[in-house]
Specification:
Layout lengths: L1 H17 L13 H30 L6 H26 L7 H25 L20 H32 L8 H64 L1
Length: 250
């Protein structure tokens, strides 16, 4: 009985192959489309969950050192990975592209990823630096460069939209659009949420710490300036008095 069942399944597979049909997709035996979807998810997730957050954190933390080459490299890799992910996704959906939220958001992210490096280069090489765009943001009211502010806000927007896209892919796209029609493995979901939480804690935490340090430096600078002013004011009358006494003696 077992050999007969094996023979029947083998013959069915041969018939499907002869007719150009892909065997049914399942874990460990993915169809061509599902393999492309998995590659699409890997490249997109690497760009959104690892490379882009790492670039943001490097810019947030490393402003006192040679941070820009690493920041630019991470952003450049994320752009390459997003282009690959987008191309793979379009290959799978073919003529159905643009018919759901995931497709539209993917196109928007591609455009934003391409614009962001241009703003970064313009802000780094031509825009005037300001306290708000330094590692220790000012509590005052500086006049920052619009290009730098736009670059920062666009970077945070990309991360937010990117996380939304990954969540949509994990919980909606893969179960509904893959030929295997399986749930995303729990381990993958857990790893994603851990990385998401680590980025939020790291970014917000470093911003707060550096802001407090920046406020402390501003306070010390103000005290030093006030002390210098007081010394100057106190010293002036003494000098004048000494001159008056000299004149009187003469």
């Amino acid at each position: 009985m077992l050999s007969r069942a094996l023979l029947i399944s083998t013959l069915a597979a041969v018939v499907r192959a002869a007719e150009g049909e892909e065997p049914e997709s399942s874990p460990g035996h993915w169809s061509r489309n599902d393999k492309i979807l998995i590659a699409h998810a890997v490249f997109g997730t690497l760009a959104i969950v690892l490379l882009t957050p790492a670039a943001l954190l490097l810019a947030r933390i490393g402003r006192s050192s040679r941070w820009f080459p690493g920041h630019a490299t991470l952003n450049g890799l994320s752009v390459v990975f997003i282009i690959i992910a987008f191309a793979l996704g379009v290959t799978v959906v073919e003529g159905e592209f643009g018919q759901d939220f995931h497709h539209s958001l993917g196109l928007a992210l591609l455009v934003l990823f391409l614009v962001q490096p241009l703003l970064g280069l313009a802000g780094h090489f031509w825009a005037r630096p300001s306290p708000l765009t330094s590692a220790a943001p000012s509590w005052g009211l500086p006049r920052p460069s619009p290009i730098r502010i736009l670059h920062i806000l666009l970077g945070l927007t990309i991360v937010g939209l990117g996380y939304t896209q990954v969540i949509n892919g994990l919980y909606i796209e893969w179960p509904n659009k893959s030929e295997a029609a399986t749930e995303t493995p729990l381990a993958v979901k857990v790893i994603f949420w851990i990385l998401f939480a680590l980025f939020i804690v790291a970014y917000v935490g470093t911003w707060i710490v550096q802001a407090i340090r920046g406020r402390g430096r501003e306070g010390r600078a103000s005290l030093s300036s006030a002390a210098s002013s007081n010394n100057a004011l106190v010293g002036t009358p003494k000098t004048a008095g000494a001159r008056d006494m000299s004149s009187a003696n003469v």
